[in-house]
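Appendix B, record 7
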Amino acid sequence: MSSSPFEALVFDLGGVVVRHDNAVLFERLASRCAPAWGRDEVVALFSRGSGWGIGTPIRDFHDQLRTEAGYDAPWSVFVDDWCCHLAVDPSMVTVLGRLSRHNRIVIFSNTNQEHWDFILAASNGELGGYDAFLSHLIGHEKPSLRSFEVVAARAGINPGRSIFFDDMPANVDGARQAGFQAEVFRDEAWLLAYLAEKGVVLG
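Structure tokens (predicted):
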């Protein structure tokens, strides 16, 4: 990996390697709730909580749905509902695999354990082969400065010699404030062209 111009290529998951549509998630949850509960009401209930991305158990949200919204499904069904909006992009998984032959790949995602378990299974475990720093485990979420500082320290990388890709401009700005090189992810073709221009061996 010494041939890479970067110490690490750091990737977000959602919107980069994993497609997601939160509207689908909340509509699915609402479909199992009492008639008065639509998508907006479920979103409001979720927003009332805190810490979902930094370690508060998602089981607590399931309990709230059952108690307050009349959600009528057990935990096992809830987990399926909770992950229904996620789809791993197999082409991007392949791209990361190619890049990893000559570059260090790091994942940094705002997520929870249930989503991560789903993503690992959907990628046939391939995404589990990289150093992954997940908000619910490190206790910090993007775009906070502290989250990027923790990732850099735990990964043992120099932010200025590493590059971060995320589909959300606010997260890219957070990474830059922490000293990372960072770019807003557009699509796979753009990524490969950008990395090639920077002299990254694509595998």
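Remarks on this record: The longest helix spans residues 58-69. The longest strand covers residues 105-109.
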